[in-house]
Amino acid sequence: MSDNDKKQKVLILLGSPRKKGNSAALAREIAEGATSGGAEVESLFIQEMDIKACQACWTCQKSDSKGCAIKDDMQDIFPKLIEADAWVITTPVHWFNMSTQTKLWLDRCFALAKYGKDPFKKKIGIAITYGDTDPFTSGAINAIRSFQDSFKYVGAKIAGIVYGSALEKGEIEKNETVLKAARKLGEKLSRGV
Ligand SMILES: Cc1cc2nc3c(=O)[nH]c(=O)nc-3n(C[C@H](O)[C@H](O)[C@H](O)COP(=O)(O)O)c2cc1C
């Protein structure tokens, strides 16, 4: 069975401290697009989870390693990441890059190799919101570049990136174009492409 025939599992990471903020609105559209395309979708609100910073102990990289030494909620997230066909990372821009919550999660993915075979054989969707009007001066481009470099390094395929300007909570709802693009990205992920 090819990736395109099987029901896709899409795991969405909500990387903003605002549960109903702008990036969460894009996450909602991606989820709706993916669900309408037949995918199984689960969303994780990182802010409410106990995810500690990577301690750079390198325990996870030892040949006989059983995985990450930090016993927190990442231990439940690792199997979900392994099982998913697609990951969607949604984040606001905070200080010219991804949010701290998102970065905490990303750093901890260092240990993922110990939790499954081909741990990064995933399709990646990315959604970013920022307060400035320009993706360059806002720093959104730095976040995009960080994701591009990270996922290239581990060999994961970026299926699509959506981004839009919005400062106040909910402001992104006025941007029909980016909402549509987010929904389309969800549909694409449901097809496993
Ligand atoms: C701590 C903090 C730092 C921010 N830094 C930036 C920034 O560097 N560039 C920018 O354009 N917007 C910045 N913003 C604005 C947010 O990116 C913007 O409001 C975004 O839409 C919030 O998304 P959310 O509702 O999903 O949290 C910052 C907001 C906060 C709270």
Key attributes of the depicted protein:
Rossmann fold, 6-stranded mixed beta sheet, 33% helix, 21% strand, binds flavin mononucleotide
How would you describe this protein?
This protein has a single domain, classed as 3-Layer(aba) Sandwich (Rossmann fold), CATH 3.40.50. The two termini are about 15 Å apart. Helix 1 packs across helix 5. Helix 1 links the parallel strand 1 and strand 2. It has five helices and six strands. The protein binds flavin mononucleotide. Flavin mononucleotide binds next to helix 1, strand 3 and strand 5.
Give the structure's gist in a few sentences.
The protein has 193 residues and is of the alpha/beta class. The protein contains five helices and six strands, in the order E-H-E-H-E-E-H-E-H-E-H.
Task: Give the helices and strands, then pairings.
Layout: E1 9-14, H1 22-36, E2 40-45, H2 74-83, E3 86-94, E4 97-98, H3 100-108, E5 123-130, H4 140-154, E6 157-165, H5 176-190
Parallel strand pairs: 1-2, 1-3, 3-5, 5-6
Antiparallel strand pairs: 3-4
Helix pairs in contact: 1-5
The protein binds flavin mononucleotide.
Residues 16, 18, 21-24, 92-96, 129-132, 138-139, 166-167, 169 line the site of flavin mononucleotide.
